[in-house]
Amino acid sequence: MPPAPDPLRADGFAGVRLHVVTGKGGTGKTTVAAALAVALANEGLRVLLAEVEGRQGISQTFDVPPLPTTEVRVAGGAQGGEVVGLAVDAKTALLEYLQLFYKLGRAGGVLERFGAIDFATTIAPGVRDLLLIGRVYEASRRRHDAKHHRGSPPEELAYDAIVLDAPPTGRIPRFLSVGAEVAGLARMGPIHSQAGSITELLHSDATRVHVVTLLEEMPVQETVDAVAELRELGMPVGAVVINQAQAREDLDALGAFGGLDAPLNSDPTAAAKLSADLEAVGLDLPRATVEGLLDEVHRHTERVALEVEQLTVLEQLGQPLVTVPFLIDGIDLDAVTEIAALLAEQGMVP
Amino acid sequence: MARTPVLDIDAMLADRHTRIVVCCGSGGVGKTTTAAALALRAAEAGREVVVLTIDPARRLAQSLGLTELDNVPRPVSGLADDAVPGGRLDAMMLDMKRTFDEVVLAHSTREAAEQILANPFYQAVSSSFAGTQEYMAMEKLGQLRARADREGTWDLIVVDTPPSRSALDFLDAPKRLGSFLDGRFIRLIAAPAKMGGRAGLRLVNVGIGLVSKTLTTVLGGEMLRDVQTFVNALDTMFGGFRERADLTYALLKEGGTEFIVVAAPERDALREASYFVARLEQEGMPLAGVVVNRMQPSAAPGLTAARARAAAEQLAEADRPAAAAALSLHAEVSELAARHRNLVRRFTAGHPSIPVVEVASLAQDVHDADGLREVGRRLAGLP
C-alpha cells in the first residue's frame, strides 16, 4: 500500500487552471505569483499572468516595458512553455465588454462622455471588481486564435493555466465573491448571468486560492482569517506560501552559545566561547565586536523562535505549506527563477 | 554633497502648530504601527492626541490596552508614569459602513434616512465600494477635527491611511466621489427627463436616450431603479457633498498638517514612496519626511562581510561549527544592512531635500505599550 499523502505537501494541483494568489501587503505576493507562472511555464504550459491593481508589478518583476491593456509575452519557459502578462484595466475591459455583448460602438463613446464609464469603473459597487475578474474569466475560456497559432488546433484553449496576482488578503473575500454580490444586485439580465458564470468558475475544482505570508504575527493572523473566510464562501483554498523564511540551516550550531533566557551579548560564558573559537583561527576581535556578533545570534534565534511559533499556527490550517527562504540579494529576475524552482520542487505544479 | 536632512519627529510632535499627522505608504510597511507609536509618543510628551487607525489589527488594539478598537474614540489608559503631564491618548478604528450610516443619519430626515439605509445599492456602496474607505477616512478626519475645534478635546490627530492598491488612492478617492456626485452623469441617472428638458439640444437628447437605453439593457430595470433611488436620496441629503470633500482636502493642505510617508527598504515600497512624495509636492501638501522602517541593523559593524565569510570557512574547517555559524550569519546580516543602506541612499539621492529617518527592524512584533514606545524612540532617531 502506498504511504498516505502528506496533507501539508502540495500535490501538484493537477487540473487547476486558475491560480489566484493573494497575501497581506508586503509579503511578496506579486513575486510569488510571477514565480508560479514561471514554474508552470517550465512545465511546457502556456500561462497567463494577470494583475488587476494597476501597479505594473509584472513589468517590474520581469523587467519589461510597462504592459499595455493587451496580452504580451513576458517570458519563455522550458519545453515551449511561456508566460504572457496582462495588466487588466477596468475601463478597457468595460468598453470591450460592451462592444462584445451589445455592439455598442457609438454608445460606448457617449457613455464615456457622460461619465458613465467612470461611474461604472470607480463608483458603482462591485462593478470594477467584476470587470477585472470578468476579463480574466474571458481569457480562461478563450480558444486559440488559429491565425496566430498555426500549430495548435483551433478548439484548444488559449491558456493552459492562469495565475492571477489578486488584491491583498484584506480585500480578497470581497473581490472573489463580487460575482455573487453583483448577481444579487442585478437580479436578472446579462450582468446577472455573467456574474453567475464567474462565481461558478471561482467555486469550481479548476480554481485554487493560494495565500502568501511571512512568518510574522500580523500576516499569519491575516492568513488564518482569509482562509477561514474563503472556506466559508466555498472557495477552494490552495497552498499557503511562506515567503522570506529566515531560519538558517546551521541554526542548531548557534544554540551552543545559549538559549533565549537572557541576552547573549551580556553572557560572559558565550563571549568566552566565541572569543576562544575565533582565536583558534587567529582572529582577535575587540570585545564590542564579539558582543555585537552575539547580539546578532540572539536576534536571529529570537526571530526563529517567532517563526516556529507562527509555523505551528499555519500547520493547524491543514492546507499544503510551501516555503520560500529569505533571499538576501533582493528580488530580481534571477530570484524569480530561483523561487519558481522551489515552488516546483514543493509540489506547486503538476 | 549635502547631507540628507534628518526627520526630527520629536520637534514635529512638540510643535503645537502641528494639528494633524497623516501616515501614508504602501501596504505592509508598518504604517499602522508607526501611526500608533507616533500618537503614543506625542501623548507622553504632553499632547492631547487621538489616533485614527484603519487596519483592524487586534494586536495593535491590545498593545494600546484596549480590548477592541471601534468607530468611537476610546481613552488609552497606559501612559507612562514619567509622561509629561497634560497628555492624553484616544484611539479608534474606522468602520466605514457605520461612518457612512452616521453621515446619512446626520444629513437627512429620519424617514429619508431609513429609506436610504434599506436601499440595496446603498448597502453595497457603503460596505464595498473600493473608494468608500478612503472617503470615509477623510470624513472621519473632518469630524474629529471639527470636534477638536469645538470641544478642545484634542490638539493633535494622527491618521493612518487605508491599505489602498496604491498609496495615491487616499488622495484621489474623495475627489473622485465628490466630482461624481456633482457631475452630469448622476443628474442623468437621477432625473433623465428633467435634464433632457433643461438641456433641450437635440444632440444631447440623443445621447441621453442612448445612455438610458444602454443602462437599462446592461443593468436591468430593477437595479437601475435602486440606483436612481439612492442617487436621488444622496442628492437631497448631501447638499454640500462636494464642498465637504473639498474642505477636508483643503484641511490637509493647511499649515498644521504634516504628512509622513512610511516605507520599507524594498524596491517596490520605495518606489511607491517616491510617487507619493512627488504627488504631495504637486498638490502642495506639507510633507514632513519619510520613515524607512524595517532597516536591518548590524550589531558588529567593525567586521566586514568578506572578512566574516573567510573566517567562517576557516572555523568550519577547524571544526568550530558554532562560531562558523555566527560569522556566516554576520556576513549575511552585514550584506543585508548594506543593501538596505544602498536602497535608502538611492532614494535620498533622488530626493535630497526630504528629511528621512531610518528605523531598525524589531526582532519581535509589537505586543504592548512598551513595544510601541520602543518604535517611538526609534522614530525619534534615538539609539
From TrEMBL, chain A:
The lineage of its organism: Bacteria, Bacillati, Actinomycetota, Actinomycetes, Micrococcales. It holds the Pfam family ArsA_ATPase. It comes from the Bacteria. Residues 18-182 form the ArsA/GET3 Anion-transporting ATPase-like domain. It comes from Candidatus Phosphoribacter hodrii. This is AAA family ATPase. InterPro entries: ArsA/GET3_ATPase-like (IPR025723), ATPase_ArsA/GET3 (IPR016300), P-loop_NTPase (IPR027417). One of its GO terms (molecular function) is ATP binding.
UniProtKB/TrEMBL annotation, chain B:
Pfam families: ArsA_ATPase. The lineage of its organism: Bacteria, Bacillati, Actinomycetota, Actinomycetes, Micrococcales. InterPro entries: ArsA/GET3_ATPase-like (IPR025723), ATPase_ArsA/GET3 (IPR016300), P-loop_NTPase (IPR027417). Residues 18-300 form the ArsA/GET3 Anion-transporting ATPase-like domain. It comes from the Bacteria. This is ArsA family ATPase. GO terms for molecular function: ATP binding; ATP hydrolysis activity.
